[in-house]
Amino acid sequence: MEPYIPNNINTNINDNVNTLGTSKALDEYNKINDKDIIYVDTINDSINIVKDMIDIITVILLIFSGISILVSSLMIFILTNNRVIERVKEIGILKSLGARDRDIIRLFNIENFIIGIISSLMGIVVMLGLKRGINYLFFIVLNDKDMFNVVLR
Known about the structure:
By secondary structure, the protein is mostly helical. 75% of the residues lie in helices and 0% in strands. It is elongated, with a radius of gyration of 32 Å.
């Protein structure tokens, strides 16, 4: 009768320090005894998968934000250029009164800044209102299906 040789051994390690120590001890045992004991840390693997997914999502969001900043900068340039073309007479009057190019550029930059602040505040107010409405609609639509409710039996 041959002795029983186990296929696997399940262990529970209670903290991260013991996890690293166990991993190192098994690696040393494998080197010394020419064995292939495989150490599997499912929680660590799961955490690494989630970290990788978060990194991918972060990169995608950074790409989208870069594109949106590029497009909004282009729109600001086009709108400012149109405002300058529409106000050629006003710029001529300001120059005849002694305004320098730097003063006129500063005037347009201040106008852009004020328009940006006002539109940002309007966007925040509109989104706060829409957020409440959308959350309420999701609550009404999804609450009936127990999608987000934990049911204990």
